[in-house]
User: What shape does this take?
Amino acid sequence: MVWSAVDRFAAQGIQFLIGLVMARLLMPSDYGTIALLNVFLAICQTFIDSGFGLALMRKKDCSEQDFSTVFIFSAIVSIVCYAILWVIAPLIARFYDLPILVAVARVVSLNVIINALSNVPNAQLSISLDFRKKAFVTLTTVVVSGSIGLWMAYNGFGLWALVYQTLVAGGIRTVLLFVCAKWLPKWQFSRVSFRELFSFGSKMLISGIIGNIYNNLSSIVIGKFYSPASLGVYGKANTLASYPSMQMTGVILNVAYPALAKIQDDVPRLIDAYRKMLRMSTFVIFPLMIGLAAVAKPFVLFVLGDKWAEMIPLLQIVCFALMWDPINGMNMNLLQVKGYSNIYLRVEIYKKIIGVVALCITIPFGLKAICFGLLVIALINIPINTYYTNKMFAYGFVRQLKDVFPIFIHALTMGALVFGFTEWVEVVPVQLFGGIAIGVGYYVLGGYLFQLVELHTLWSMLRCR
Assistant: This one.
């Protein structure tokens, strides 16, 4: 867990800071132009993986044939996907009425092939729970690619700084994963292995395609009916709000899936471990998200500048929408661990239908309405995600709500204090740093006085290290 946290927060923290500096150097339209291609790249990556990464981690006795089969499949599919993207690049540019997208799409799509080659060594490190090496790979990748991106942004390369930063990151990560995993493909393709792994992975493939289209649907619509600058502002708000939520949830899920998979047959132990992970993740994520919403105005003005001021209300709304990611993500993770990929797919379809309806309703009313739609969807998803956990493991919506409710109230009180302080003080730097100090102080002291178990657990983990 500690090394997974290093992977997510140390390495990704550096990337986050680099991104903030680049946002001061680049324009919102640069980020919006790149965001227009995300849905195509994400769908290609889903086809390439096809759920094989999860299938390898879930299988208890992976053979060399299994690894080589997945590698060969990923490599072939990635080449096909890149060829398709090369051909349709002019169509994408015509759809958005942005000629520059032709060149950008053909260059950035090279990452499809580069990332495909790293699927197997990445899965091998996860299977062995060797998150120390994964942390080293991520940290090195972020530092080198981020430095190149910063240099290009400072020297006026514009959106091409983002393009080449992505390509460099993919190349370095792939090479280092092979070195750390100490594995080379044997060029053995087994139909038996393919069928066995794909029987689980096919459901994850369909779910992934639906999820990626849905997650990028708002970007497609905003890119089509609004300006690239508006998409850049919306995308940056999602990026900033997603960082604490997705990184911490990623820390938990990175460890949770392979670790829980090892005890999947011991249901009482499985649920006990799941409850601890759920409470610990919400204990960290709730105050981060609510705190970021409380200091959103001074944070954006001080760190990014006035040109991003339009993003402030969007960031606040999205923070409250994404703070529920641990609950939604952990419930779906439990279905994956137990091998219920068919139920996982069914739940994903239900949620995506609701999400599309909400997006269609909110689109005509502007970016704020779209963000409020994300909040409503997140709240609706909680009872949907917990339905099967309750049915199969007797740990549903009510029990999970009881587990996290004290943490939520504690974090909400902290957020109210911080927001009140930022409204009372007029100097932007004082609003930001004073608000952070008050939030951290209250949350830690209150957790100690209220005897929240998670605070003592977190302190014990840090003290042991």
